[in-house]
Design goal:
Helices cover 92% and strands 0% of the residues. By secondary structure, the protein is an all-alpha fold. Helix 1 runs antiparallel to helix 2. It contains three helices and no strands.
């Protein structure tokens, strides 16, 4: 019974990885063509969230725990990038006000 659920979960995770390629592509396009910096920052957050989800689903499919470390690293880098880019946006806005 457990083997059935394990196979079903691996298949379902592989399907979800394929489905997540659509928002990953759309977020990448939005990041490159966004009209403003804020749109690009939101797209970056979305890209990192989707990348973390794909790494976690890859861990389910392959059974290797190293992908959780990769997901944690992506999330940490995404958080730091968002913080630094928001500080840059705030600095640019202050320069425009002066």
């Amino acid at each position: 019974m457990i083997e059935f659920f394990d196979g079903f979960l691996s298949t379902f995770a592989a399907i979800l990885i394929a489905v997540l390629m659509v928002p990953l592509t759309l977020a990448a396009v939005r990041m490159m063509t966004g009209p403003g910096y804020a749109d690009r920052f939101v797209a970056l957050d979305m890209l990192t969230g989707i990348a973390v989800a794909i790494a976690a689903l890859t861990m389910i499919v392959t059974g290797r725990r190293e992908f959780l470390d990769i997901a944690f690293g992506i999330a940490l880098i995404g958080f730091l990038a968002t913080c630094s880019l928001s500080a840059l946006l705030e600095k640019k806005q202050k320069e425009e006000d002066q």
